[in-house]
Amino acid sequence: MATDFYQRLIDKYEPLTEAALLTLISVRQPINGADIPAKIEALTDHQLQLGLGALFTNLHAMTRDYLIKEQVSSDDVHTYEITGSGEAVLVAERERLALLSHLLDTPVK
């Protein structure tokens, strides 16, 4: 039953947008929402940035779909962390991107 749930989420999100992929990667460890843009910049060696609109749109949608869990502290600090469902979506996207990467490395006949 869990695999059916995961598959529905994978089908909904695949292929991930760049913003969605970066959002999921950035919350693999618990993180304050305000720190996510800096983490994405650091992870990508300052080559990629994610605007706040795209970030919070993805956080909201992925929290609603149980890819990410959100905790709000008593002083209104929002902390986000990926769920098992989110990891399943990331694994599927990694496999999809690996296939595409392989195709890029394969000579055209």
TrEMBL record:
**Taxonomy, superkingdom:** Bacteria
Q: Where is the Transcription regulator PadR N-terminal domain?
A: 21-90
Q: Which InterPro entries match?
A: Tscrpt_reg_PadR_N, WH-like_DNA-bd_sf, WH_DNA-bd_sf
Its recorded name reads: Helix-turn-helix transcriptional regulator
